[in-house]
Amino acid sequence: MENMAEALSAGGIHGEESECKICYNYFDLERHSPKLLSCSHTFCLECLETLHFREGRGWRIVCPVCRHRTPLPERRVRNLPDNTALTEELSHKKREPEDSLNGIPGQSP
Q1: From which residue to which does the signal peptide run (predicted)?
Q2: Deepest of 48, 87, 91, 104, by most Cβ within 10 A of its Cβ?
């Protein structure tokens, strides 16, 4: 897939796109919310906050993949932009009932 929008239009985000490449936890809308760095790499809030702490809490954060430096608005990781494609997909999944039988042949809701 070329980008996140294509992944969404092809049926959603699955597998590697839905997990943080540092901790391998699935992204969520809380502690593991997907934060986008200026280099276009995405990591969870918790991992980026830990990385920022280890780097000395400066005004920028270094991407663990490509070493690109991303400025931090007000020196806070929380203020980095969300990866909107991922957060929209997570919001959509949160609204869907997990045990719905709709669409399964021979089953009625």
Answers
A1: none
A2: 48
